[in-house]
Amino acid sequence: MNKTFFAAIIGLNLAVTAQAAPSLEEMWELIQQQQAEITQLKTQLETTEQRVTETEVKAEATIAAVEEVSAGPVAKLADWADKTSIGGYGELHYNNLTSDNSNESKNEMDLHRFVVFFGHQYSDDLRFFSELEVEHSVAGDDQNGEVEIEQAFIEWDYAENHRAKGGVFLVPTGIINETHEPETFYGVERNSVEKNIIPATWWEGGAMFSGEFGEGFSYDAGVHSGLFIDPTKLDSDEAPDPDYKIRDGRQKTSKAKADDLAYTGRIKYTGIPGLELSASAQYQTDVWQGEKFAGEEDADATLLEFHTIYNHGPFGLRALYARWDIDNVIESVKPGADEQEGFYIEPSYRLTDKLGIFARFSEWDNQAGDSSDTEKQQYDIGLNYWLDERVVLKADYMHEDVEQGDEFHGFNLGIGWSF
């Protein structure tokens, strides 16, 4: 029985084993199927690798394109815009003034000035600045206005605390000649002394060196185009002004005669907070620029100017004195015009951050070398109201005494802005 049982068991195992083992044909099919699967996997892997490579190529192309754009016109434009500045200022005035005899009454509305600034920073130590102005709104033939370039210069910091400029620039003398945005001074109109004596606004073409030395001290020294007062017109109907004002000699760098250049220097002290002390001088050997008159070939001219600005809390004070000495040959043209001088003093008080009041006394004489009573005196009183730090409303009353007891008086209103 045992033999029969064991034999049965062995036979069953052999049968099961024989049944579980695949045949050669089945083995070949299995190998073929696995080979096909391997081939398919290889194909999928190659496709994936190709797509990855294509993606990498596209990514590199995109990066290159972005880098090209970053270094191209768009980036250059953005860099230019970042280094270029635009600004400006303007003033609208209403004048209601009455004259007794010698002056014409004035009742008018005038866009006195509209100015645009353009500047560009080439590097940390090299820059450009310009100022384009339209006066009295409309310029052209038989129009009241003018289009003027008051500044256009390159400035270079050639050493620490020292710089040089070349081009057209404002002459460094007086208080308002260089800083005259409407929110920076009191009164609708600019003061008469700096207008008629200095004469602001005054610009020339040439070269100027500026800098700081010591504690609170600064300097300006330059050579530039000068004044030209045509002596052949001074005693004729073509004279620009019967009072022979220095103002009439400004050439505004428009084909300016440069037979004789002028030299200007200034020393300024600002070492005490709120205080500015300044002294300036200019010398020109011939304001006739080579022309001859009454047997004379030249007429030298010297300007001296001193001013102080003091601000302490709400209180402010401005005071200025200026004087011209011109060769005595001017006497043969206009008596007393060889000396011209003037001064003013202006206290002010800020009642609030937005509201300030002022008073000003001015006296000037464009024929101070003569014994005749030719000086003019003017009293101004008024207020400024700042809607913003750079937007101001102005109102003032003025009274001017002129020769022979005549009077010129009335009120002015204005709005000014800068940006």
Description:
The structure is a single chain. This protein folds into two domains: 29-71; 81-418, Beta Barrel (Porin). The protein contains four helices and 16 strands. It has helices spanning 2-20, 24-70, 73-83, 192-196, and strands spanning 84-99, 106-123, 126-135, 146-159, 162-170, 203-213, 217-224, 262-269, 275-284, 301-312, 315-326, 339-350, 355-365, 376-388, 391-401, 407-418. A 16-stranded antiparallel β-barrel has the order 1-2-3-4-5-6-7-8-9-10-11-12-13-14-15-16. Strand 15 (391-401) and strand 16 form a beta hairpin. The N and C termini lie far apart (122 Å).
Topology:
Blueprint: H1 2-20, H2 24-70, H3 73-83, E1 84-99, E2 106-123, E3 126-135, E4 146-159, E5 162-170, H4 192-196, E6 203-213, E7 217-224, E8 262-269, E9 275-284, E10 301-312, E11 315-326, E12 339-350, E13 355-365, E14 376-388, E15 391-401, E16 407-418
Antiparallel strand pairs: 1-2, 1-16, 2-3, 3-4, 4-5, 5-6, 6-7, 7-8, 8-9, 9-10, 10-11, 11-12, 12-13, 13-14, 14-15, 15-16
